[in-house]
Amino acid sequence: MPKLSDDEMLKLYKDMLFVRTLDHMIVSYQRQGRVYTYPPNYGQEAIGVAAGAVLRYEDWLVPAFRELGAWLAKGATMKDVFMFNMGFEEGTKFPDAHHMLPSSVPIASQLLHSRDRVRNQIPEEGRGGYGVRRRRRNIGGRLPRGA
Fold this sequence. Notes:
This protein is an all-alpha fold. The chain has helices at residues 6-31, 45-54, 68-74, 78-85, 117-121, 124-138. 18% of the residues are buried.
């Protein structure tokens, strides 16, 4: 277990409590029809907050669902979270979050396994690097301009 001071432990606890409170609020809005697809984070607060606590400023965050704590730790605001989950395009920008991509919500991806095995076996985080490597191989080991 890492050595954490009492103040650090208290901050992590408060962050988990904040994530749970925000999660309850968003779920309530979803049930009222004011928010669209939202995967509840209930019971997942600790892992999201812990992942966010160890992220450095220069690290990239490619979130999946139930990582609300990491979103907030990376710099996303409550407004960003609501804008994203309410379907506004502005909600995918995260102006205060450095190196953070919007969450990907695959729907019915289990139906694609037999048709496109390679794409579905590579995690989303690695697809960008895989694509760059494949593109380099196809054009003789160097990237074209603007790529």
